[in-house]
Amino acid sequence: MANPTAAMLVIGDEILSGRTQDANTHHLAQELTKTGIDLREVRVVPDVQSEIVDAVNALRRKYTHVFTSGGIGPTHDDITADSIAAAFGVPIGVRADARDLLASNYAGGTADLTEARLRMARIPEGARLIVNAISKAPGFSMENVHVMAGVPAIFVVMLESLLPDLTHGQPVLSRTIRLDVPESQVAETLADIAQAFPDLSIGSYPFSMYGKYGTNIVVRGTDKALVDDAAMAVNVAFDEAVNVD
Amino acid sequence: MANPTAAMLVIGDEILSGRTQDANTHHLAQELTKTGIDLREVRVVPDVQSEIVDAVNALRRKYTHVFTSGGIGPTHDDITADSIAAAFGVPIGVRADARDLLASNYAGGTADLTEARLRMARIPEGARLIVNAISKAPGFSMENVHVMAGVPAIFVVMLESLLPDLTHGQPVLSRTIRLDVPESQVAETLADIAQAFPDLSIGSYPFSMYGKYGTNIVVRGTDKALVDDAAMAVNVAFDEAVNVD
Questions:
Q1: Do A74 and B41 touch (CB under 8 A)?
Q2: Domain ranges in chain B?
Q3: What is the chain A residue with the closest CA to B74?
Q4: Helices (DSSP H) in B77-151: which residue ranges?
Q5: Which of A80, A180, B165, B189 is the most exposed place for a label (fewest CB within 10 A)?
Q6: Whole-number average pLDDT of chain B
């Protein structure tokens, strides 16, 4: 059976302006690869409700899962929860269990929940909460859309609490072989090998180090024997092969 | 007049698998901010022609410019040029000027152009070449779609040669003010300030350092006087304000 598929939706002007470099996508990509969920697309959109709604609706219909990061804090530019409610056409309001979780983060409990902080307990109707072990303000899953924080440390713990609940596929295994020759010298042989292993993804990634050109060959697939066979074929074809991992 | 808009399309399985972290988007975002072109969306898609074609066609109709990175090397998984030709419905073939540029990179000149290397001289009909000061294999612009390499060093020099030819807008200026209080304590006042400056983007970014929580307020816009006024309003509203840049 084919692995479940996924898309990542990064929400935030700060990524598009170049102020911040997105780190959550790379972390998500690595975790999904381990759990056999295939990340197939990433989008970054600004803090604009119509853009978020359009992207969520396009992606949730196309992939098994959609993961989002960003825009669930207490300030005026945090509009992700409302946008998700709008995308699904459901109401949104402060939910008791989310409010209680939030209150547990403050010395004064519920009494410390200002209007701004209460924004973080607004959850679209029908969503399931995602635990936030750091600052308590929860994320949530609305059907197949998993809404998480943009702060990397919090994104990491939310994903950690979410992933065990999702149906996993077969982990994608990879072998990397380094060739100390330029990519153009390996292209033809590599195309033949790729053709001989149609069920694997065989990529080639040029690099330069100390002024010399080289190429990393990455063989990826879910069948270990097949991945090993293809890695062997690369080794046999190229004298310069160094098995990296 | 509003600034020109742009989207970035990153093409590559290696980003989606988590093998590589995309660095080109962050560089592009910073350069576009300086030149007054508003980056409005980013997508990452796999090395699959239909996905590339669909994304290119969606983005080129929506934004002034589309920048792509990845998939223009000599190997079987480099399918970007063909996908762009397919998206525009034009033929593609080896072009003499691209071939000559490419040949200049090899000791033996044209005689060194193997079939694999010649792939890098295949240019969709009607495109303009983008100079590659490093390894010579050119990128190209097809109407408003600018196709560049995925290797970060080459992406950087291609963008450098391309940007002066594009119509620039007004650079987006920003002021960052650090507040040594959690985001939830500044939310209400900040919402009032944001409402008072509807032409500016005012964002709030929580951070934690040495176990203490703080918030960066970023004021962005093209009108320097307005940006300064809003930054002043933030300073006046919060005792803890520290002007960072």
A1: no
A2: 5-165, 173-243
A3: A184
A4: 80-88, 96-103, 115-118
A5: B165
A6: 94
* C-beta atoms of B29 and A47 within 8 A: no
Which residue stretches of chain A have pLDDT < 70? none
List, as one string, the DSSP characters of A194-213. Answer: HHH-TTSEEEEEEEEETTEE
User: What's the DSSP call for residue B167?
Assistant: P
Helix axes A187-196, A224-237, angle to 10 degrees: 150
Banded pLDDT at B245 (limits 50, 70, 90): confident
A21: chain B residues, CB-CB within 8 Å: 23, 26
Residue in chain A nearest B149 by alpha carbon: A206
B203 and A47: CB-CB below 8 Å? Answer: yes
Asked whether the beta carbons of residue A16 and residue B202 sit closer than 8 angstroms, the reply is no
- Model ipTM value: 0.92
pLDDT at B133: 93
Lowest mean pLDDT among B13-22, B155-164, B223-232, B234-243: B234-243
Say if domain B173-243 classifies as CATH 3.30.70: yes
Question: Between chains, do A190 and B76 touch, taking CB under 8 Å as contact?
Answer: yes
- Tell me which residue has tokens 């990845």: B70
Are B188 and B181 in contact, with CB atoms under 8 Å apart?
Answer: no
pLDDT at B234: 95
Looking at residue B244, its pLDDT comes to 78
Q: Where are the alpha helices (DSSP H) in chain B?
A: 13-16, 24-35, 49-62, 80-88, 96-103, 115-118, 152-162, 183-196, 224-237
Q: What are the pLDDT digits (tens) for B115-145?
A: 889 999 999 999 999 999 998 999 999 999 9
What's the CATH class of domain A5-165? alpha beta
**How far apart (Å, rounded) are the C-alpha atoms in residues B161 and B21?**
24
B40, B43, B116 member nearest A42 (Cβ): B43
Whole-number CA gyration radius for chain A: 22
Domain A173-243 in the same topology as domain A5-165: no
Binning pLDDT at 50, 70 and 90, where does residue B197 land?
Answer: very high
Partners of residue B20 in chain A, C-beta under 8 Å: 205
From the CA of B183, how many Å to the nearest CA of chain A? 7
Please judge whether A39 and B16 are an interchain contact, meaning their C-beta atoms are less than 8 angstroms apart: yes
